[in-house]
Amino acid sequence: MLISLQALRALAAWTVVCHHFMQIFFDFHASGPIGQFFVDRGAVGVDIFFVISGLVIYLSTQDKDMPAGRFLLNRAIRIIPAYWFYTVLMGLMIVALGQQMPHQVVDLPHFILSLLFIPSENPGGYGLYPTLNVGWTLNYEMFFYLMFSLVFVVPQRLRPLVVAAALFAVCEMVSTYGVLSRFYANNIIYEFLLGIAIGWAYRRGWVAQGLWMPLMLIAVSLVAIYNLPASDRLLNWGVPSAIIVVSCVAMEPWFKGNRLLKTLGDCSYSVYLIHVLVLYTGWFASERLNINPYLVFAICVPVIALMSWASYIWIETRLYRRMKAWAEARLAPVPSRSIT
């Protein structure tokens, strides 16, 4: 993994944390320009995540031939354990404290659909969100992985075209069916293809290293994101996010070898999953004890960081390795016995 992408993943995750802090503590009513930025534009961290995901999946599978099922199994082992764990915790929190959590409701059918990455109306009545609200992005991620698995049956030179065609065709097809049409008609899903395009260009040496030009492009992209609405998310936020990603890749020599940034990036998935649980806990403390919300947030940040680091070590690394070793042992071909 490029350290520049790790740093950007961490920044994107913590941007989303600040966005949800403004939602949970202030119901998206900001009192200053910084707060207003996170209210209006903090969700762009998701767009950056999607572009990075497309880039990383493309680069990590080049020059590799594997069954599509093996690819999907590896991704499932990587994504599902932590997501299921924190979804269960969120469900228990809602059951225990649901009366005090605005709009938070859990029921068994919706909970099961959440675990299966199937979009469905949240029983709280606020949209197509799973029990662990941030999991809506993982519905897109798993859908992308399913489409990407098709590339392993075609030559490498055709893989970007195949995944693009498959993603477009299936999205257009499912967008005619009820709930799925409301979810997969969102053009945010095509941001994965922007990441694949960056990976394709990077592999061919078309991403030139530099500092001042990438910094200028990042500044221009941030201005665009700040001034453009999310109504056309792919064009207004997705394209600037892709420019930010490719600019960070171009600055890789200035990031290379930074272990802190690598660790922050490693923990970003757990940060994304954990932060809502911690913020809701902080919100309860703020309401009950009448503590300043910003003081509570200052406490929540290191708590999220420490919990995410522990989650990365125990769930994302150690459990992942054990599950992968177990799966590979079961999938390994059985040696034939010689008859003597």
TrEMBL record:
List each copy of the Acyltransferase domain by range.
3-308
Q: Which GO terms describe its cellular component?
A: membrane
Highest taxon, organism lineage: Bacteria
A GO MF term: acyltransferase activity, transferring groups other than amino-acyl groups
What the entry lists under InterPro entries is as follows:
Acyl_transf_3_dom, Acyltransferase_3
GO terms for biological process, alphabetical: polysaccharide biosynthetic process
Keyword hit for Translocase:
no
Q: Does the keyword Manganese apply?
A: no
Enumerate the transmembrane spans.
42-61, 82-101, 134-154, 161-178, 211-228, 234-255, 267-285, 291-315
What name has this protein been given in UniProt? Acyltransferase
